[in-house]
User: Fold Putative Zn-dependent protease-like protein from Mesotoga prima MesG1.Ag.4.2.
Amino acid sequence: MHSDEAYSAVINKILSGGADFAEIFLEERYTGSINMVQGEVEGSVSGKLFGAGLRAFKGTRSIYAYTNELSLDGLTKVAERLRAVISQDRVADSVIDFRNEEFVDVCPVLFSPNNVPKKEKVRVMQLAHEGASTFASTISQVVVNFVEYDQNVWIYNSEGVKAHDRRVRTRLAISAVATKDGQMESGFYGPGAAMGFEFFNMVDPRAAGERAARIADRMVRAEFVPAGRMPVIISNEFGGVIFHEACGHALEATGVAKGASVFAGKLGQKIANECVSAVDDPTIPNAWGSANVDDEGTPTRRNLLIDKGVLKSYMIDRLGGIKMKMKPTGSARRQDYTFAPTSRMSNTFLLPGEYYPEEIIAATDYGLYAKSLGGGSVMPSTGEFNFAVKEGYMIEKGRITRAVRGATLIGKGNEVLTKIDMVGNDLERGQGMCGSISGSIPADVGQPTVRVSELIVGGRN
Assistant:
């Protein structure tokens, strides 16, 4: 690390080309991963990453460059390249008064990843393997992955921002495959948190393995789902991926600022049933997507997106804010220093309603119960989506009956919001990795149990 005066000089070098704004993002990261197949460790990788990303704005134009040469000379050379792109000479030799961002750490860490012996991590993985492999005779393969990182970032910019944040993440991911009568089905569970190894004081690895195996075992025994339009009850926790993908991305300034979102220009308008409220909240203590400041040094905050069906806010980064003439919401994120930041979700979920899950099921004469959702695709500009149901059951006469497989949910995100007619009181969140133009980042999804009055269910007739 260099002095504040040194970073001020680098920023002034960028500004001297006529830039309106300049920023330095510095990163130091330890990463580690262990892969276990059928109870045997097959690979273990760890390493460190160092680098810096420099950015300049001229109006709504953004120029970004990065380097792993962190000497003052290396940073200055990159700054000169940005200056050359801007290429409008002006005097910029003022001293920037950097102000430390002060905050209460929402993600304290007890046991840093690289201070925990590898054998303890392997023991956690073995417990997960045992839970999955012994769950049922149908389980034919179990793969367990242990992933961790310890990231420190420093942000300086021409507006005087000086911020530092440490982000520690730990995740255990279990994939189980079940085989029966020549058919194969898979199950997955991947809990994670912004914590160190103390995470496993909260999560039972054996139970996590059993959960992945249960999905695979039930689905390999299931019949194929009938296709058609029907009510769909989507379970809590990772069921929230449907809101994340089909609606959440369309609320990011990345698309809204360009008008490439179905929700562009709709602030203050009703976009959902009044039983629907949603937030993006990176301030939840130790949550998978939480941070103290975003990747532009803006303090994070709870962002109410939808309130009783009315669109209240977007997720906005600095550049998006300039384009939209709105203030940033602490939503700028990036995978690492090789990516320029943009508006992204953190912990995004529907708020709980008034119904018990059992009431929602009992009120549904016929439909599909989507217990767990898998991968899918979405077009943010139109909201069109399709999602695979990894674990599903039929609802008949107000009761969950037979397990079904092969279901796909098809629809439009903006239409689904208006068709949610019952919201449960059982909010839970699940963990995943979210990909977009600024790379792959940890993100929580979540919701209580909800009922969509009608969705197209792809299956077999």
Notes: The chain has a mean pLDDT of 95. The chain has two domains: 113-150+167-220, 228-458. The chain is about 20% helix and 40% strand. Residues 118-133 form the longest helix (16 residues).
